Description:
This protein has 2 domains: 2-228, 3-Layer(aba) Sandwich (Rossmann fold), CATH 3.40.50; 235-272, no CATH class. The protein has 272 residues and is α/β, with parallel strands linked by helices. Helix 2 (93-103) packs across helix 3, helix 2 (93-103) runs parallel beside helix 4 (138-151) and helix 3 packs across helix 4. The protein is globular, with a radius of gyration of 20 Å. The chain has helices spanning 46-53, 93-103, 108-122, 138-151, 168-181, 194-200, 218-227, 236-246, 258-271, and strands spanning 2-12, 20-31, 35-40, 61-66, 78-80, 156-160, 186-190, 203-208, 211-217. Bound molecules: adenosine-5'-triphosphate and magnesium ion. Magnesium ion is lined by residues 46-47, 82, 160.
Amino acid sequence: MSIEIRQLTHIYDASTPWETIALDRIDLTISKGTVFGLVGGIGSGKSTLASLMAGLGTPAHGSITIDGEPPDPGRNVGILFQQPEDFFFEKTLFEDMASGLLHLGLTEEEVHKRIHSTLDLLGLDHQILDRSPFHLNRGTLRLAAFATVLTMRPGYLILDEPTASLDPKSRKRLVEVIKRISGDIAIIYISHRLQEVVAVSEYLAVLEQGKVAFTGTVPGYLDWATGQDAWEYLPVLNQVMYGLQRLGFDVDLNVACLEDAVEQIRLSLERT
Ligand SMILES: Nc1ncnc2c1ncn2[C@@H]1O[C@H](COP(=O)(O)OP(=O)(O)OP(=O)(O)O)[C@@H](O)[C@H]1O
Ligand SMILES: [Mg+2]
C-alpha cells in the first residue's frame, strides 16, 4: 500500500524560451500509515509534485501509481492546495463542502454526518457552514478547506503548506489532527516550517531544483543536513542541539519540540 513515483519528470512550457524542468527524474515511495514530509526551497518543485500525485496534470515522463492504480482525485487521493481559498465558489460553505461528497454518490444524510463530524474533529464552529466562504477569515477558511478534504476520507492526503496563515493555536490543532489521523492513511506534508515537518513526519524528502537531494527517516535527515553543514535545512531547535554537541554536550540531535530539547539538556547536565 503505497504511492510509487518512478523517474518522474515534469516540464513547463516545453520547447519554448520559458521552458522549466520543474521535476527531474524523481524516484520516491510513500507508504500508508506514515506522515511523509516534503521540503525544499522556493520553486524546488514541491507543488508540482503534489499536483501530479493528486492526479492533476500529466507528467512529461515517468509514472505515479497509488496502490497500483493511477491517481484519481477525490477517490484514492485528496489534496489541500497551497492556496485553498481560491477553490471556494458556492454561496455557503456547506454547499462547497457537500458538492464533492454528493459527487461521490453519498446520501444527503451521510453528507451531513461527515461534514459535522469533521468540523468537530477540527474544533470548528458549525455555524460557519451557513456563511459565505468569502466572509470567513483566511485562517478559518484554510481550516474549512482542510475539513473539506478530510470529509472525502482519502487514503492518501497531500497537504501543501497547510499551516500557512494560521495562528499558533489553529496550527497546533491542525498538527494534532494530522497526528491523530495519520495511523490509517498516508499524509504528504509540504511546508517551509522545518520544525513542524520534523515534528510531524516519520519520513522526509528534500527537493532541490526538481531533484531529490535526500530521502529517508527524520533522524537520517538531520544527520544528512549536519553532515554537509546545510544549516538552511535544520530547524532552529536542531541547530541548537547540534551547536551544543559541538561544545561537548551529550545531547541527541533528534528533538521534535522545545520540551524534548530542554529534557535532553537537563539529562546531559545531570550526567556531567
Ligand atoms: N504553471 C506554471 N507554469 C510555468 N512554470 C511553473 C508553473 N508552476 C510552477 N512553475 C515553475 O516550476 C518550478 C517549480 O515550481 P513549484 O511551484 O512546483 O515549486 P515549490 O517548491 O512548490 O515552490 P514554493 O516553495 O514557492 O511553493 C519553478 O521554477 C516555477 O517557477
Ligand atoms: Mg509550492
